[in-house]
Amino acid sequence: MKSRYAIFMAALLLILMLSGTASALTARSGGTVVIDDVIEDDVYIAGGNVLISGTVVGDVVIAGGRVEISGNITEDLTVAAGEVVITGSVGDDIRVAAGNLTFNGDVESDLALFTGDTVIGREALIGGVLAFSAGQMEMLGNVTWDLTGSAGTMVLGGHVGGNAELQSGSLVMLPDARIEGDLRYTAPERIEVPEGTVGGEVYYNMMSDRSGEIGVIVVLWWIASYLALVVIGLVALAIWPDRMQRLARRTSEDPGKAFLTGLLVVIAAFVISVLLMLTIIGIPFGLIILILTIILLYVVRIITGLWLGKWMFAKMGKTQRPWVELVFGLFVLLLVSAIPIIGWLVNLVATLIPVGNLAEEIRRRL
Fold first, then answer.
1. In the beta sheet, which residues pair with residue 205?
2. Partners of 160 in the beta sheet?
3. H or E stretch including 185?
4. Distance between CA 83 and CA 257 in Å, rounded?
5. Among the four residues 58, 71, 226, 350, which has the most C-beta atoms within 10 Å?
6. 63 near 80, Cβ under 8 Å?
7. Distances (CA, A) of 149 to 139, 154, 198, 250, 296
């Protein structure tokens, strides 16, 4: 069980560490972790049961079985757990990946969810946008800005200060619901919208019968992508073991510089390929550069996956062979990359940093 929590911990830390936001931290782990005092630092927690009733002046990152937060957090909260209950207050954004979530607290900014059964209670106050992907969603709270997301089944009540854009196999609007802006929804059939609940316009899109098939295709694509990267990574480790290890270690040495270098390299590659294709003689060379760049952007994540695996097992106090680190690191990386809202950022960072380090490696050899 502890290794599972550590894996999720590593995934969440990737979001913050690669973006350079965590310069100091307080780390706690164990079967039960309780914070009932004041901590003036970023806090990273891995535990079976996590209880926060005190105050944290900083960011909080949690991986656990059951997480209950009734205290105050002044900055961001990021959680991955089986069950999450939040009744306290958070001063910035909240990101949750969980099997079950009950939210009856308040958050100053956005609330982003990747959850199973979800209840946003009547006492909930969301100061920004509520974005979600859920199995079941019951939204009864107050959202200052927009509400957007998809759920298998959804009950909508409470108040939305902006627009609502929803997709659900079963959508029900309660009489006490209020959407100040427009309502756009995708469902198998039109729903009854109680009079006076929508301040703007109501737009309906019929849900395609192929929506379930699309979901299966997405899952199969994720699995195929993971297996392909694992195979490529194992081959690379077999051919260039020292170079792969060296590039992986550089991931966290100067991530900001590596990110910018990688961004410049990618932009330059695309610009050069386009300029070459503007000339007849340069078309094949431009296409080659473009194709190689796209392939590089796909496979280079194996370096970040290897680094993440190393970091993950180091935090657990264990030593594993590089191929094991690669397999676990890539799994966590792709899992977090699939989370709505923040996934694209993780993917971007996990791609451009190794591109930058690879470019620096080539420059030094030249």
1. 186
2. 143, 179
3. strand 183-187
4. 38
5. 350
6. yes
7. 11, 10, 18, 37, 32
Residue appearing with tokens 């920004």 = 128
Long-range contacts of residues 339-343, Cβ cutoff 8 Å, at least 24 apart: 339/95, 339/97, 339/112, 339/114, 340/112, 340/114, 340/131, 340/132, 340/133, 340/149, 341/95, 341/110, 341/112, 341/131, 342/15, 342/95, 342/112
Residues making up the chain, counted from first to last: 366
Quote the pTM value: 0.61
Q: In 3-state terms, what secondary structure has residue 231?
A: helix
Place of tokens 């100067």: 254
d(CA 273, CA 207): 40
CA distance linking residue 338 with residue 326, whole number of Å = 18
Give 362's contacts (C-beta < 8 A, 6+ positions apart).
none
Q: Give the tokens for residue 302.
A: 């194996």
CA 134 from centre of chain: 14
